[in-house]
Amino acid sequence: MQTLYDKLWQSHVVHEESDKPDGMALLYIDRHLVHEVTSPQAFEGLRLAGRKPWRPDSILAVADHNVPTTERSHGISDPISRLQVETLDQNCAELGITEFKMNDLRQGIVHVIGPEQGATLPGMTVVCGDSHTSTHGAFACLAFGIGTSEVEHVLATQCLLLKKAKAMQVLVEGKLGHGVTAKDIALAVVGKIGTAGGTGYAIEFAGSAIRALSMEARMTLCNMAIEAGARAGMIAVDDTTIDYIKGRPFAPKGELWEKAVAYWRTLKSDVGVTFDQVVRLDAAQVKPQVTWGTSPEMVTTVDGRVPDPSQIADAVKRHDMERALKYMGLTPNMSISEIRLDKIFIGSCTNSRIEDLRAAAEVVKGRHIAANIKLAMVVPGSGLVKHQAEQEGLDRIFRDAGFEWREPGCSMCLAMNDDRLAPGERCASTSNRNFEGRQGPGGRTHLVSPVMAAAAAVAGHFVDVQEIY
Amino acid sequence: MAPLDRANIDTDAIIPKQFLKSIKRSGFGQNLFDEWRYLDHGEPGMDVTQRRLNPDFVLNQPRYRGAQILLARANFGCGSSREHAPWALQDYGFRVIIAPSFADIFFSNCFKIGLLPIVLDTNIVDRIFHEVSSTEDYCLTVSLENQTVTTPSGEVCTFDVDMFRKHCLLNGLDEIGLTLQYADKIKAFEEKRRTEQPWLFA
Ligand code: SF4
């Protein structure tokens, strides 16, 4: 009997030292996604060694981290960012790699466009020089982030040398409450097992609550597997998966489609297989989550309170908590709903897809952002998401409510471009990391779902979205 | 050896994003832990000799200058996959990082560039933290060959390392070159895949 992870692993082993079962295996890589930040040194290394990409047609490239989200007709003003994006353009042109350039409607965050294009297909190994590659595991892929040396390794050999991880099942049964989303499940899991809880594991999310999620919600969940320390997150194939893929540009058509679907349906863990670890969560008990600290595991529910370090026995933990609260400018025991915000960010590879925008728009519709909110912005995950949203009039709803409506990219998720927090500013963000300085030096990030961010924008402080819609 | 007494140090802290705009592989050492190390905000291209050092940050203390081993707490290197983090640590002069645990991607990135991450038991790490803070010129000796860390008092702690990774590190081997020795196997695998799952090659 095999887990989904076993099946994906085994079907990609090119070579294995048979006498060392726990050793490294050479794994074949089907899809290589590339962005501007982690690839230039890899292309340079390849060139210096006189090597060529093994399979250029397996690569899809896009610039997302550095691109401006405001008017783009004048290009990128920061010369260093511009050089990095131009370097990607040049490398792709020279080596025959498909790239969606900055002004292409299909441009967007790498983890949004892969699935959107059908470039992410079940059963694939998908890699990218980016830790949130785990997103693609929603399609029953073995998808994980790699470093730049590994990017070069995949470019040169189409393979990676890897050690097999252990398998963890996160079982979520039951029905999510109104206004509770995949983001809340993700944060609740990270809160439960900690940011290192999944280290050394590949996580499979399963259970009735997961089966009930849309593909986009599943992507949100797998996206954050890395925040629990797991390099890969994954979900078995079902009708939802197959319906989503059908008709997308890179997806198989006609006879091949039928053949592919038949294979894809085998991509699930065998009934009764044992996992190295099982974590259970009752969906009905999951409430809207809000992080209060500087690590995604520092999370509580919207009706909760900021924790009190003096109640923590472990010295290292207490010290971390004190430090986090100081950085975040919060006092122990204050209630989460007392936290007032300066900025709102709806975007990132976690929550910038059309369903995220629809849900947030639903909350702000006919309302306006609170007076204390200096900036509320929506950054769609791709040009196509933006286009779709505009077709549905979501841009109007957001604009009328006082939000800025931007061009697609990573934006304030990591603040490599001009979108960032000023020191001390506090943001409700739908992204995935609340590390110190992540959204700008001295910036304070609270991770939440899109509906919770929208509700906070309207109220000016955190509120339980269930109360307002 | 320098002790950095903090858990869950993420790669954003090791090398902040503004320095990721570089298309080069070197020169990140001067911005290692930039937000903790300097009092002013750093941007690429700034002359670091003109910047204000944070005297409270451990690496700025004279006694830890020139350290080649970094001691840290659990889950070191979590977060983003940026290899710029190990590049920065190495460029600064570190050759070994010791911690009770590391994040997966960071851990494997280190080996690729010849930086050695060593996992030691939490209790041992704890003890070394205490010893180093109370002893000037505290020096650890690391032997990859013997897989040992030796403290000044002569205590020897052993650590695990994957045989293949050890072999590559000790011999400075090029992993890509090694993999390409299997080029025929990769081609054969690819052809089989092309026949069985042609949609992957469309
Ligand atoms: S949106 Fe954020 S987390 Fe996602 S790829 Fe971009 S920078 Fe990374």
Descriptive account of the structure:
The complex is a heterodimer of chains A (469) and B (202). Chain A has 469 residues and is α/β, with parallel strands linked by helices. Chain A contains 16 helices and 19 strands. Chain A has helices at residues 4-10, 40-48, 79-95, 110-117, 148-157, 182-193, 208-211, 215-223, 239-245, 254-264, 315-328, 354-364, 383-391, 394-400, 450-459, 465-468, and strands at 13-16, 24-28, 31-34, 59-62, 98-100, 125-128, 142-145, 159-163, 166-173, 201-206, 232-234, 277-282, 289-291, 299-301, 343-346, 375-378, 404-405, 426-429, 444-447. The mean pLDDT of chain A is 96. By secondary structure, chain B is an alpha/beta fold. Chain B is 34% helix and 12% strand. Chain B is built from 8 helices and 7 strands. Chain B has helices at 11-14, 34-37, 84-92, 104-113, 122-134, 163-171, 175-180, 183-196; strands at 2-4, 69-72, 96-99, 116-119, 141-143, 148-150, 156-158. The interface between A and B is large, with 78 and 59 residues.
In short:
Chain A is an alpha/beta fold and 469 residues long.
Describe the secondary-structure layout.
The complex is a heterodimer of chains A (469) and B (202).
Chain A: H1 4-10, E1 13-16, E2 24-28, E3 31-34, H2 40-48, E4 59-62, H3 79-95, E5 98-100, H4 110-117, E6 125-128, E7 142-145, H5 148-157, E8 159-163, E9 166-173, H6 182-193, E10 201-206, H7 208-211, H8 215-223, E11 232-234, H9 239-245, H10 254-264, E12 277-282, E13 289-291, E14 299-301, H11 315-328, E15 343-346, H12 354-364, E16 375-378, H13 383-391, H14 394-400, E17 404-405, E18 426-429, E19 444-447, H15 450-459, H16 465-468
Chain B: E1 2-4, H1 11-14, H2 34-37, E2 69-72, H3 84-92, E3 96-99, H4 104-113, E4 116-119, H5 122-134, E5 141-143, E6 148-150, E7 156-158, H6 163-171, H7 175-180, H8 183-196
Parallel strand pairs in B: 1-2, 2-3, 3-4
Antiparallel strand pairs in B: 5-6, 6-7
Iron/sulfur cluster is lined by residues 64-65, 109, 111, 130, 132, 348-349, 410, 413-414, 431-432 of chain A.
